[in-house]
Specification:
The chain has about 110 residues and is α+β, with helices and mostly antiparallel strands. Helices cover about 20% and strands about 20% of the residues. Bound molecules: guanosine-5'-monophosphate.
Length: about 110
């Protein structure tokens, strides 16, 4: 298991507010939310970032899970944003692939 905070959340070694789980993914609320709904969808497999896997099925699954959680959170009709940060310029801070689901307010574009 990789030594990062999301690996520890996946292993249930540290707590998180989990909103969804299946055999391939885990989704939990971001500890520092940037919108009323801010949830992280992560693969259970150790994958450092979006460029570190060619598993199109898994990548598609993460997006499908995020869309299902958006419906569950009641923001499907108002809209939401899915974000994957990769590398320094994007501000990626945890080296485990994660999809941000952001919604519940009007989001600015372009992002900062
Ligand atoms: P990144 O900047 O890498 O795209 O996003 C990492 C996200 O993980 C940030 O939004 C940050 O608030 C969140 N985060 C960092 N540590 C923890 C933690 O221990 N628990 C939870 N739930 N979220 C975390």
């Amino acid at each position: 298991m990789a030594d990062n905070i999301f690996s520890k959340i996946i292993a249930k070694q540290i707590p998180a507010k989990i909103v969804f789980e299946d055999d391939r993914s885990l989704a939990f609320r971001d500890v520092n939310p940037q919108a009323p709904v801010h949830i992280l969808v992560v693969p259970k497999q150790d994958i450092a970032n979006v460029a570190a896997t060619g598993d199109e099925t898994l990548l598609g699954h993460l997006l499908t899970v995020a869309a299902a959680i958006a419906r569950q959170e009641g923001i499907d009709s108002t809209g939401y944003r899915l974000v994957i940060n990769k590398g320094r310029d994007a501000g990626e801070s945890v080296p485990h692939l994660h999809v941000h689901l952001l919604g519940g307010r009007a989001l600015q574009w372009p992002p900062g």
